């Protein structure tokens, strides 16, 4: 079964140079000899010695059997330089691709098909904001760690041992800049902060069915309030579909703005742990890719030691532990973005109205270079709310000479444009020693917004909501707001001290899974686009089911695929009339007797998934039409679900059935009728797909997962770079999340899934466990390119040694980075 995103990238690869295909073909033809040569040429040096300019003292790099680097430096400047070098050794192509995404410079190496992505990325001003961040850093914080990290990356480039991808694409990279690191942090923030897209999808639903039906479809209405539509009425004359499609395509390029992007974390204190000390678990969910988004690393210098998951391109550690504390995160799903519709001056489209005044847009030009095509200029516009992200030209035509611009320009207000990534905050987090210093670091955590769980060696556990969350003059930020009235403007941010926080709760455990974390009487509006809470409920079930937990218990939890939403549907089907004996009746009994385990070989689980898909389409499309149904289910062009409504649609619909609320159904239909029709349709489709033998209707035959490299979308390079497909269990509602798009009859796992797993054992840091989705190396010739895949499927984690003794005992190689002494 094909993945539409792979098809999109196949089209892209058709435009790339013939040298790419010739190189791939030659590589394949050479076979084993080429593979051995590739392991030497394109794999990292892990033993011996390398002389690096810029170091003041030697740095030791010990690598364990999984390729995880443990760095020992005499001081912090040397440590961050060495981190830049080591990350570049293993992941420089990934870092190069990421900085081009941030800067909107993909078309320079990929050609014309990347132009739409570059144009939208430029309009989002992610790299422009990175430049502003760096200037602020120079004036207010210590820019040294970023600069030293860049020196280390450039020391790797000076060795002239570039990854294979540069040979295939036939170009050489530019030097690494501190702004490249900040730019990628902003792309990651975009991937974790896309609720404005949900606003646009809601607006299209309002346009299709009006505010009353849209309110009934709203999964998270505020208590006692209907869905509030700003005074643009039904959004008549506005068309958000082009921007939705454009952003959906961008998601396909970036690979991080996917379905089910979320995470799980949980922590127990010593009273619920077999060790008598806290245990903490975290598995952030991001889409599959090769190499993985995270890179495991251990950094050690005097008064600084931290281990865990880093982001290639950034110094420090994002998720992990130091000598005193451990932490893990999930996305809060907080509403830190708003779309504003700006009202243009009819006499001068370079002006927009705000309250009773006309204002000139801030403007500047961006030059977009395209491989094999002339460079062109794109004019950027910015209002007081934020950059104009929709296609807009003050001359009335698109900047590329396309058709006439439709509707009013859409501006994006986002907390990142007020205060963005703080390197100081990250490094303070890495060095925090207790709850007060941990919270002090998170006060500088601005964007994206995360739920942090915490544990320390003294036995304490805690939870802290972190990130800038806007205070709105009016409204909930559910729909695009009119910019000209000023009524919906932001007027500051929720004070950090008033964000949700909990320390040593009486339940002795804490957890989050992108669910709502505050009661209805919480005085501030944090968001409305949470995940459905099913994963959170399953975590709560497990944590309350036994008295004490071991690391092995947590490891098992990571692999849990019990689907509570599936059991709800099974209970509804159980109430239906049994019907005539036959294939459908036997299938019904399988679903009714199902234990909820959505394993890859589950036939009942397959019946649930296909029935739910049929039911959603069957109920929604007569009301919304196909396009608005796609928007409600989060399916954008490229078939990539981005909206929070995606997660909520199924459980919300089942709630109507459980209450026997027929307001979504045609006047002559009952829920029994609707469920029977959906189930019969599912059985018919599965019979047509797999035949009469029910045993062949396994979930994993539909639900497969691919681990694809950006250059692996077309033969013969797919055989070099990609891994898969593999049958996999789970879905968006299981702890082991393997989300997929709600595209009709397509079940490929192309959404959020665990990119990193960690269990921090605070009784002994050497007993901590971790797993990277695929492997440490970005080189397909390295033994560490995909060596963690099979254990990842089996839920097996690997030791992450922390003491010097344990690191040396488990070492597979030692590389010494030596300073370059000036010539006398």
3D structure, described in words:
A hairpin with a 4-residue loop joins strand 17 (450-456) and strand 18 (461-466). The protein is built from 25 helices and 30 strands. Helix 17 packs across helix 18 and helix 19 packs across helix 20. The chain has 824 residues and is of the alpha+beta class. Residues 1-30, 222-226 and 397-406 have low confidence and may be disordered. The chain is globular, with a radius of gyration of 26 Å.
Major sheet attributes = 11 strands, mixed
Low-confidence stretches: 1-30, 222-226, 397-406
What structural class do the secondary elements suggest?
alpha+beta
Q: Determine the mean pLDDT.
A: 88
Shape: globular
* Strand order of the biggest β-sheet: 1-30-2-3-6-7-8-9-17-18-22
Q: Report the portion of residues in β strands.
A: 15-25%
**Would you report the number of β strands?**
30
What's the Cα radius of gyration? 26 Å
| Count of alpha and pi helical runs | 25
User: Helical content, roughly?
Assistant: 25-40%
End-to-end distance = 65 Å
Features of the shown structure:
824 residues; alpha+beta; eleven-stranded mixed sheet; seven-stranded antiparallel sheet; 37% helix; globular; disordered N terminus
Which SSEs are present, and which pair or pack?
Layout: H1 4-13, H2 18-30, H3 32-42, E1 48-52, E2 59-64, E3 69-72, H4 76-103, H5 107-110, H6 115-124, H7 126-140, H8 144-158, H9 164-169, H10 178-191, H11 195-217, H12 241-254, E4 262-268, E5 279-287, E6 295-301, E7 304-310, E8 319-322, E9 325-331, E10 337-341, E11 343-345, E12 348-354, E13 357-360, E14 362-370, E15 373-382, E16 410-414, H13 423-431, H14 435-442, E17 450-456, E18 461-466, E19 470-472, E20 481-482, E21 490-493, E22 501-503, E23 509-512, H15 534-543, H16 551-558, H17 564-574, H18 583-592, H19 603-632, H20 645-659, H21 671-690, H22 699-702, E24 704-707, H23 717-721, E25 723-727, E26 752-754, E27 756-761, E28 769-772, H24 789-793, E29 798-799, H25 804-809, E30 811-819
Parallel strand pairs: 1-30, 3-6, 10-20
Antiparallel strand pairs: 2-3, 2-30, 4-5, 4-23, 5-26, 5-27, 6-7, 7-8, 8-9, 9-17, 10-16, 11-12, 12-13, 14-15, 17-18, 18-22, 19-21, 24-25, 27-28, 28-29
Helix pairs in contact: 2-3, 4-8, 4-10, 6-12, 7-10, 11-12, 11-19, 13-14, 17-18, 17-20, 18-19, 19-20, 19-21
